Amino acid sequence: MTFNYASVASGSCGNCHYVGSDGGSILIDAGLSGKRIENNLQSIGKDIKDVMAIFITHEHVDHIKGAGILSRRYDIPIYANEKTWISMKDKMGKMSENNVRLFENEKGVGIGDFRVKPFKIHHDAADPVGYSICSGDKKISIATDTGHICQDMKKELHGSSLVVLESNHDVEMLKMGSYPYHLKRRILSQSGHLSNDDAAMFCVELAKEGVENILLAHLSRENNFPELAYQTAIGTLKMNGLDESVNIRVLKRQEASPVHSI
Asked: Which residues neighbour 97 within 8 Å (Cβ) at sequence distance 6 or greater?
């Protein structure tokens, strides 16, 4: 059985992740226009009509922008926890009650070939989550929009075949940049976004745990650039003698990634 991941887009302007198998596919977030999500999926040979569900991490617009229109157009259920749904429902447009699916954090949801488990992350939203998606003995995990990685998150991410990990900003670029002070404080806080340095250090831990594929995600357009995120991660892995044990890639902000099969 195939088990695939692709980024539909990942960055401050919109986020959407594709996870697929022989039995269908799901999206984690839909933070682009519905049309762009359709087009980006088509660019990697995937069809929105095969999507069985959209799982939402949190209610910020760069994670939900296209969810409502895709749900209405293709009759796709949207999964979220209760606090997130309450915070996002007014932004979704008219929704079929049958397509609103609420879950409890830490409890898995079975759909198609997948077991999808939401777990708590640390971001300034109502009740944000990351996801681990299991199919057979393989696991893909997605952890973005988190100010730090706690022990409970580490337990969820360990054992993954592929991890999508936030590497949002370079701290010095952020401090010296044009953002207002209050926004800089928010991003740097424990409920903000993960820096390149923090992501790189966690890459070391993941590599030691046997994770073979790490995809750096949600890069800031203003306070980061792909080569810097990559070099920070690979340099830290090299200093720990681990650069040859893990495949590091950086996801693009506007374009779909290649399909990764595990």
From this structure: none
| Residue 94 included in any domain | yes
Over residues 85-103, the pLDDT tens digits come to 999 999 999 999 999 999 9
CA dihedral 50, 53, 56, 60 (to 10 degrees): 60
Helix H or strand E segment including 95: none
Cα(135)–Cα(12) distance, integer angstroms: 29
The parent domain of residue 155 ranges over: 3-253
Burial of 194 (0-12, 13-18, 19+ CB in 10 A): buried
Predicted pLDDT at 245: 87
- In-domain check, residue 96: yes
Q: Per the domain annotation, does 261 fall within a domain?
A: no
- Does 262 reside within a domain? no
Assigned token pair, 105: 């954090």
Give the pLDDT score at 23. Answer: 87
Which CATH number goes with the domain that contains 130? 3.60.15.10
- How far CA 200 is from CA of 25, 234, 235, 242, in Å, comes to 30, 8, 8, 12
